[in-house]
């Protein structure tokens, strides 16, 4: 999957540099999305190949790397076009991704897995074999993964409008600073929170991070300048860093090894659903009820997730006792 994703993205990104019309650009961007998925594939690989006792730390390190790319990419992408041109920027990006393809092909070696039995050849028998408690835990994690991305992305469409309300100079640049502050916080915290979760349990860390994220969202509706907002987004990023690594680790510990990759793939699909619905909901809510309602509504969603996860952890069962 990683080889296919990296090679496909390298080709698609290079072809974007050759686009002559808006429709060609749109189709090539769609192709890039269809061929992509390297980050989600890497998450599945790390989760299934890492010893369970250290899965939280490993997923946290990976999350830090992904967030570092999310932070550096837009900054570099903004600097390069004036220097080398927009088309050459896409060619350069394609070349960098092709290097990733070569590194994946030559340096990454997946540990061999046992041949699947007939019982795990199809999706239905594997799901049926899960106990009711396992299904409840997995469903809870799918919901949390989707709502985390929903809440994170709901702010995206309104951030520049909100900064204008704060009478911010150079809105475009400061919007980048505000969004980068969140990524920076996640980079610093993800591996540490993952290691903490390996030691004290994934459910307590997940519930606490959800609660802290909700608490840092509420005052964002009442800030008076951009630097207050950036500081709150940074602290929110610290809490966000522990969310998705803990979700992936919980899924990894809950299901049998034979279906771990499949369930993590479903979790990734849940995240993409949240990424699609979040901006739509944020834009509608901000347009009808005001910008502050987006932060308050998002905080309520994450607080509900924290309560749900906390209740799952309080009920001592064979599954939750391992988490």
TrEMBL record:
Q: Which InterPro entries does the record cross-reference, listed alphabetically? A: MFS, MFS_dom, MFS_trans_sf, Tet-R_TetA/multi-R_MdtG-like
UniProt keyword annotation of Coiled coil present: no
Question: Listed GO cellular component terms?
Answer: plasma membrane
List residues of the Major facilitator superfamily (MFS) profile domain.
1-321
**Record key words, sorted:** Cell membrane, Membrane, Transmembrane, Transmembrane helix, Transport
* UniProt GO MF annotations: transmembrane transporter activity
Looking up Pfam families in the UniProt record yields: MFS_1
Q: Where is the chain membrane-spanning? A: 29-47, 59-84, 90-108, 138-159, 171-190, 202-223, 229-251, 272-289, 295-314
The annotated topology with respect to the bilayer is: Multi-pass membrane protein
Instruction: Provide the protein's localization.
Output: Cell membrane
Q: Does the keyword Transmembrane apply?
A: yes
Q: PANTHER family from the entry?
A: MULTIDRUG RESISTANCE PROTEIN MDTG (PTHR43414)
Q: What is this protein called?
A: Major facilitator family transporter
Source organism per UniProt: Pseudomonas syringae pv. actinidiae ICMP 18807
Upper taxonomic lineage:
Bacteria, Pseudomonadati, Pseudomonadota, Gammaproteobacteria, Pseudomonadales
